[in-house]
Amino acid sequence: MSGVAQIDSRGRLCHLLSLEGLGADLIREIFARADEFAAAAKPGAAASSLLSRRLVLNLFFETSTRTRSAFEIAAKRLGADVVNLDSASASARNKGETLADTARTLAAMGGDIMVLRHYQSGAAHFLAAHTPPHLAVINGGDGCNAHPTQGLLDAYTVIRRRGAIDGAVVAIVGDILHSRVARSDMQIFRALGADEIRAIAPRTLLPAGLEEAFGAKAFCNLDDGLRGADIVIVLRMQRERMAGAFFYPGEAAYFRDYGITAARLQSAAKDALVLHPGPINRGVEIAGDLADSSRALVLEQVTNGVAVRMALLAMLAP
Ligand code: NCD
């Protein structure tokens, strides 16, 4: 998606809409800032005043637990004011107001950074194109398109645990078709030097053109796709995007054929790490005991998500 620049003429980040074209240097700069904030992100740490008198607007038109609360916590730890609007309270939409008008209204109240989650792909780019230039837009997940902060925190978590991504084989398993996380992860792991990116899913959940668009290899067989993988990213079935149909004959069959268990991971690299953006469906895409084991980084992802979002808010604040 194009139209609005997310990097200004001085090479600084002015919006975060997608990881496409962000470049390894800028990604490493975000990670270095996240390292600085890692201690301050911890519960009980004193709030900084870096963003005092700044207003962060969380505009969530789709449900969210992790992303919304992580942005709220990150903003508060930096001393910013936060206003949360979710789909229930975003009454403007029900009254016929367009997204652009809602955004302009909120910006007129003095917003500095707007985090948008929206069910339509491209909504964050649209918002950035229709709001005053001083307002920075962060894409908190748009339709099936992109979830750049999740991609950043996934790569950051792997680097903190493993040291580097260079040369790694990354396997993403699950509902690739509907997943904005898969798209952002494919972009960031590639940008940071992964040797191979694999997308594993039933044929009905594998979009065409993965190789051209993301440099990823498609696999329909789980064992083939997992062979030698260093990093396994597990995704849930996004039934809310399947318009009532389930793209595989039932959850039990899905778990049998694509569910990630300790036994299935035997064909992966010996110390392969397992990530999941959440929410987890135990016994559908991942076995509960594996999700709770030390090789699964699920809760580290959540913790690191606060530090990464603090870094982004600090870099985007005017
Ligand atoms: C993801 C999302 O919303 O795209 N969740 C998240 O942000 N942690 C993945 C999902 O909903 O499956």
Protein traits:
single chain; 318 residues; alpha/beta; four-stranded parallel β-sheet; 12 helices; 14% strand; globular; binds N-carbamoyl-L-aspartate
Structure write-up:
The model has no long low-confidence stretch (mean pLDDT 92). This protein has helices at 24-37, 66-77, 91-94, 99-108, 123-129, 148-162, 180-191, 210-214, 222-226, 251-258, 288-291, 298-316; strands at residues 55-60, 81-86, 113-118, 136-142, 169-173, 196-200, 216-219, 231-234, 273-275. It starts with 23 loop residues before the first helix and ends with a helix. It contains 12 helices and 9 strands. The radius of gyration is 19 Å and the shape is globular. 36% of the residues lie in helices and 14% in strands. Strands 7-6-5-8-9 form a 5-stranded parallel sheet. Strands 2-1-3-4 form a 4-stranded parallel sheet, with helices on both faces. α2 crosses α12, α6 packs across α7 and α6 packs across α12 (298-316). It has 318 residues and is of the alpha/beta class. Bound molecules: N-carbamoyl-L-aspartate.
